[in-house]
Amino acid sequence: MLWCMAGTTPKARALGAELRSAREAAGMGLRQLAELLETSHATVSRWESGQRAPKPEDVTAYLTTVGGTAEQREQLADLARDPDGSHWLSVGMPEQHRQLATLLEIEREASRITTVSPLLIPGLLQTADYARAIMTTGGVPASEIDTRVAVRIGRHDAIVRKTPAHLRAFIGEGVLNQLIGDSEIMVDQLRALLKYAELDNVELRVIPTRCGWHPGLEGPFSLAEFDGTRSPIVHLENRVSALFLHESDEIQAYLDALDRVCEVSMSQIESTELIGDAINGTESTQ
């Protein structure tokens, strides 16, 4: 089985989503646009869904027809130059905003999400106050914080919607005892973890500090899996850049890494007991 067919990569899907948004903003129907471009509506539909990657000249023609700006044409034509490449690395804006939109779509469509977060509560499980404390201290412009917090909280929908994704979250033990914001914020965050752990579709496990080496020590990562034949996607992120991986050998490397993380992690029962102890310890210092 192919891990990723041409035109089904995260980059191709992001390109398609932006094309669709531009068309809808122009109030133009798919068939109407296809006629103006002298192509089939099925082709345009596949471009917008990411099933088929348009050529840069197709993107330029598309955006010219729907009234896209010169900047938009330049950015998306550049995105179309290697939509099926083995990596999609984003550095700086607006590329990171584009990747964030793609990550949200991936999480909405995933049937299973696994996240390894040795240093912070995973974004999918963060409370608003915890996320806000990180962003405020981390230097995010004040004018952007409310929007970014809202987006992060919106990610919760992936695991609480009517047909939720199954989430496996591996969290470093030290995360439970960090003081992000203040004691009240941390206690609320830890209590939120316990509530999420009660959900049938959430498996929450703590990676003990004294467990020796494991791949999580190399940095956080997440793996999204889907029903059907769509290939898994790995997402990596640091302070200034983000990266999507989808090639079969790369995916297998992270599947192997998850096996090791599972081996060293506490059970779900042990993990929730430890979180309870952390709550008690934090409350005693208030």
Automatic annotation (TrEMBL):
**What residues does the HTH cro/C1-type domain cover?**
19-57
Which residue positions does the secretion signal occupy?
none
User: Which is one GO molecular function term here?
Assistant: DNA binding
What PROSITE patterns does its record include? HTH_CROC1
State the name under which the record lists this protein: Helix-turn-helix domain-containing protein
What is the originating organism of this protein? Actinopolyspora alba
